[in-house]
Amino acid sequence: MKSKEKRTTGGIIVAAGKTSERNGLNPLLKIGSITVVKRIVLTFQKAGISPIVVVTGYKAEEIEHHLADYGVVFLRNDQYENSRKFDSAKIGLDFLQNKCDRVLFTPVNIPMFTPETLQMMIEYDEKLLSPAYRGKSGHPLLISSELIPKILKYNGNMGLRGAIENIGVKRQWIDVEDEGILYDTDYIDRLDQLLIKHNKHILHPFVKISIEKESLFFDSRTKLLLILIQDTHSVRSACKHMALSYSKAWSMLNQLEQELDYAVVERKHGGSNGGKTYLTKEGTEFLEKYQQFEQNVHQFAKNEFERLF
Fold this sequence. Notes:
This is LysR family transcriptional regulator. It comes from Clostridium beijerinckii (Clostridium MP). InterPro entries: MobA-like_NTP_Trfase, Nucleotide-diphossugar_trans, WH-like_DNA-bd_sf, WH_DNA-bd_sf. The protein is of the alpha/beta class. Helix content is 42%, strand content 18%. The strands form four sheets. Strands 1, 4, 5, 6, 7, 8, 9 and 10 form an eight-stranded mixed β-sheet that branches. A hairpin with a 2-residue loop joins β7 and β8 (136-137). 36% of the residues are buried.
């Protein structure tokens, strides 16, 4: 059933496993001129999926550096060598469960589903929804956030499939004309055949928005830093989630406050866990105004792009 309500949808890309001898688990494998992990990020972004979480493990720093300018949140599975894909999925689900209404989940080795498939899926009011191509189920999987606590409690050995079967909610399927939902990177020849079609689907305007005086002092990267400080109450944790050095983060914050001429963050000391960092009232208001401005500009760019191209 299609939903009449506008709901927020986040995305999880699991890219934590070791690269196999085959192509299967390599997030940095290129199909066309871009890597599979970047291709999925671009697909999510075109469909309006936000926030996007990438769970890393093997070659984490390389992957995080590769995506540092794309506004995604990084979570690490430090136990990736001794854990399963489901353990990485749980890290992402735990982070997003209170930040959006639904979550789209995919492993990194299935990179060719289209934005149109995602847009069709998020229009439906289902708690568990998978796309299907000619009777075959594929990725990504849409999960209602209200199911996440039950999924996180599952400790069986059947992974995400077992968790879904265990929660007692029937999964639904939606038919799509999108072969890309089926093929992982072990089928590299088939993915190469789908490349031209997929590139047409991810064609979109890429608009960078910044605020400047004599020099740039606020952009999407600074925005993400403030969002993560607001969420974690820690500059250090925020840096960890966005592949940013601690000193660079404070340099960005100091410049922002100097240009705005008011405090954006405040530190509160003490407590058994040490001090915490919060956005000030003025900092919160500035962030909200920027996000509204950014949303308006992106919507205008999207409308003009569709009209002209």
